[in-house]
Design goal:
- This protein is mainly alpha-helical.
- It is built from seven helices and no strands.
- It has helices at about 1-20, 25-40, 45-55, 60-90, 115-130, 135-150, 155-175.
Length: about 180
Amino acid sequence: MATLTSTAVDRFDLRFDHRVDALRGNPAMDRLFYTASFLADHGALWIALAIVRFFTGIGGAEAAHFAGIRAVCAEWGQAVFINLGVKSLFRRQRPVIAEPRPFYLRTPRTTSFPSGHSTASFTAAVLLSQGTGWAWFLFPLAAIVSFSRIYVRIHHASDVIGGVAVGLAIGVAVAHFAPLP
């Protein structure tokens, strides 16, 4: 049964990757998706936005301070949970890339499932948009970062889908158990 499921997932990933191939090589898209992937490495983009939330006071000073600290803590917590816990359970190999990348990207040392960038992106989007009008910006940004991982061939599409689901779940759970003041 696991082989059938793995085969179906592998076929889905392969079909999705072939569709993305039609987009690769466009200089503007290469720059957008490689930059998004690079900036979100180690959650840096999301931690920077949490710091912005902390210092701007958007949504009220007390709520903004709490939201910023909560988001940074959630980013670190989810990174440990995903990279040391979940990824070790699945041990899925990353996509193989034959040709050189047009821009430098760090090669991750962890396994592929789920995408840590996607998990971090959607966790942050949930937490940083709460109490603000930032959702219109944060969720599309999270989607761009998530898709970038497929585009740059560091993750399979199913890794990203899994990361989005886990990120949303973590974000909603943290928001529920640590609500804004």
